[in-house]
Amino acid sequence: MFVTYLRRELAGRRKQTAIVAIGMALAIALVIIVNAVSSGVQLAQATVLGSVYGVGTDITVNLTPTAPAEGDAAGGPQKFDFGAADGTTADGTTSVSQARLSAGWGTFTFDQAALGTVSAVDNVSAAAATLSLNNTTFNGALPGSQTQGTPPAGGATPPDGGPDGAGGSSFNVDSFSVLGLDPADEAVGPLSAVTLTDGRSLTSTDAGANVTVLDSSYATTASLATGDTVSIAGTDFTVVGLVTAATADADTAANVYIPLDVAQTLSGLTGQISTVYVQAASSTDIAQVQADIEKALPAATVDTQADLASSVSGSLASASDLVKNLGLWLSLIVLAAAAFLIAILSTISGVTRRTREFGTLKAIGWSNGKIVRQVADESLVQGPLGGAAGIAIGLLGILVINLVAPTLTAGATSVAAAGPGAGFGAGGPGGAGPGFGGAAQAAATSDIVLSAPVTASVILLAVGLAVLGGLLAGVIGGWRASRLRPAEALRSIA
Amino acid sequence: MYELSNVTKTYEQGKRTVTALSDVTLSIPDGQMVAIQGPTGGGKSTLLQMLGALDRPTEGTIELGEANLSKLGDGKLGRIRAREISFVFQSFNLIPTLSAQDNVETALALLGVRSTLRKERAAAALASVGLGDRLGHLPTELSGRQRQRVAIARALVKEPTVLLADEPTGNLDEETRDEIMDLLEGLWQAQGLTLIVVTHDTAVARRARRRLLIKKGVLTEGA
Predict the structure, then answer these.
(1) Which domain does A220 fall in, by range?
(2) What ipTM does this complex have?
(3) Per the UniProt record, which residue ranges are transmembrane (chain A) (predicted)?
(4) Scanning A55, A107, A123, A180, which has the fewest C-beta atoms within 10 Å of its C-beta?
């Protein structure tokens, strides 16, 4: 009887059933789509971060910058000092050259013992140290000593010598970023974010060896290939491989990768590192690992991927903000207003319209409990009906998004250096040249195709919301029906 | 048997108190057919609701057999309505989405009658009012006369001891009115139940063996 009544009511009051179900369906579809897009944006964000910080990296540890003490020259501008006997002179022109490998501006180094400290923290599954450096080479040509100084008496002899033969000078500054890393650590850190395109990567046997792996973009610009030799701090390194970023356009963390111990020796930063990359045992351990590292290394800045996410810029960041700020609010508002509210109001309205019906049933002897159950059951069926439709609409929406595959651009700030060939000319007539090229902040940019993944949890969430919406409407509608006194219900229609 | 002693019923309408029934004392033996007449707003329907255990008096007592209807809780009143009291309304009050047979079955749904027997009894009740061939029809597919017959079948299917009819012919033409009253009177005689009819219609009231008049909440025996 009750099932027949339920079935006939739902079929007989199609309009109300449709309104409740459609409201519920649209809201649930929106929740599914927003959740899927949100997951897609987070995946895209993780891809960008992975390309910069390493795929498996959960946490990075750096030294917190502090103001230099008075008289402390560390961190000041680089200088190239040449003695009177430096350089080689030929044809009235003295050529000088000097290379320097040092921590770039904005990079702070700390004791390598921190790596051991971090590795000892509970739930750290892997940790790798790197030393971020800049190799700057100064090349110059200037007039020989005999052509400089006070002109001969009479002053009529014009200056000569120098690269232009008229007493002028020319200087060239070449700079690129160098990352020293432990060749044995491939699971975490910058090398985990790159793809080998030629040759081989660094291996544990490369420790102490003058071998290097180049970023393929840098190699192209510098006309270098596997097997060539590249000079770093005046030392020749053999190029053993080329790597490229995991994503299409993102830069890797450096132009040149060399073994950590070699980098420390050449830069004079023995036992020093600039960053520790940490992988937690599981995502649920990240907060604990971060807290423990902060406690063990009070002077360090400990960033998680969530912190790093703030460095992602571009339309991906906009999309992320949109999803976080607008999308979730929108879905909540629509869910509350368009679904739950419509379902509840519609159910209450239906109860009011059915005052005579419920009054009659009570007059016949139906208990409050039976009538409440009747109303609640109707709503409970309408909810999942809407839920099923909502899941279908939501999946359709996700399919459309995945077919359209909108592209988002993203940037993540990383320390990089200008490419080769930057330099300046000065001195003699006509000697003005282009600006100085040095270490700088560069942005790794990526085009990420947004995909909206469908997960079982999203479907379960939708089903849960449908049941909850139906239950809520049913309980409130049933409560309303139970409040009807049979005499009043019948009197209202007398 | 009904026993009403000094029954008063008042309602609050804003700041005003309306007296619908005033000190009504009444006794109705089992099996009697009673007509209650009176002007609109005189208290007829209120009295019927008190007799039907749909409401409780503000003062006084109402007894149906051993049960004191003025003291029982909602649950017990509901059970008494389910087993002993039936209603026939002026507007038929059928469930619009249910067929004639389903509507009649609603009166048996709470009595623990098995589905097969319930359907058989509903079909038999409809046949007894001349609607044996309309079992699957919705109320909207039936005429006013047929709808009231369905309502009567619903009222009688559970074999109550009391049948309360509130203007049962109010929405019907004269010919149909007589037909419905013939039906009700025949069933009353056949089943020996107590039949109480509230009506404006003197022609309907004249059929009753006892006539009561209620005006401004005060009940008097009719001529």
Answers:
(1) 65-298+415-444
(2) 0.89
(3) 17-37, 326-348, 385-405, 454-476
(4) A123
